[in-house]
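Tokens as discussed.
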């Protein structure tokens, strides 16, 4: 769903929490691309030096190797970083951009593959002529590859941090085990972390019945999603322990 100031996109998480995404403009995206292109060309230049001056290869074989390497780098480089580094290549990281799917969730392999393969069409006839033209008419400033892959390049937001008096950590946090922490880091996104922190920060201001119902719903969701086998742990304490673990809130002083 769309909303907020012009140009922003408002989406709902699976927990029905609104998250505002700010699509990146053409300028910042182009500069991020230039950083990545310089890196790729540098790697290709180094590889070319090795192929031509170190390896004993015929010109035809050397050219075939360089052509293949160029294709792999220009397509594989962004796919690798988008999947392994939360939608950020070096260029996007430098300009605080990242790629997400249309709902604000982490990008999937098939989406990254589509958006980067279609880059060839976006680049035509030169200097992203098609991609730039398409983005001018798209509300979220997406190029053709993003539209077909249902992805979005957004400005990164600074993550929320616990502030003030917030009751997160109990004396014993049953989720602070290596296996539980691995699942938490792998399965809980940035947007979900912010939702959990916001919930804990506002929980004490909710009516008791409303807080109970909300904590029960959220706690049940994450108990199943994270495979938490702790029947002694109430859903509200599970939510608070999960949030404390995500934000590395230590045990209170006694």
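Sequence:
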């Amino acid at each position: 769903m769309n909303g907020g100031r012009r140009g922003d996109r408002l989406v709902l998480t699976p927990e029905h929490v609104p998250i505002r995404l700010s699509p990146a403009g053409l300028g910042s995206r182009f500069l991020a691309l230039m950083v990545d292109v310089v890196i790729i060309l540098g790697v290709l230049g180094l590889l070319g030096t090795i192929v031509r001056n170190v390896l004993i290869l015929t010109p035809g074989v050397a050219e075939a190797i360089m052509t293949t390497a160029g294709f792999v780098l220009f397509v594989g480089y962004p796919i690798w970083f988008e999947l392994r580094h939360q939608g950020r290549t070096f260029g996007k990281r430098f300009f605080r951009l990242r790629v997400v799917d249309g709902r604000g969730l982490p990008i999937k392999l098939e989406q990254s593959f589509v958006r980067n393969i279609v880059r060839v069409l976006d680049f035509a006839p030169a200097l992203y002529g098609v991609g730039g033209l398409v983005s001018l008419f798209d509300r979220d400033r997406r190029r053709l590859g993003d539209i077909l892959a249902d992805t979005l390049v957004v400005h990164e937001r600074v993550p929320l941090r616990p502030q003030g008096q917030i009751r997160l950590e109990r004396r014993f946090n049953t989720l602070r085990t290596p296996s539980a922490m691995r699942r938490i880091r792998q399965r809980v996104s940035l947007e979900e972390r912010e939702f959990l922190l916001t919930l804990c920060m506002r929980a004490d201001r909710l009516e008791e019945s409303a807080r109970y119902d909300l904590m029960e719903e959220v706690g049940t969701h994450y108990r199943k999603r994270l495979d938490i086998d702790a029947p002694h742990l109430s859903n509200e304490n599970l939510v608070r322990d999960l949030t404390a673990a995500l934000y590395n809130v230590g045990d209170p002083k006694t």
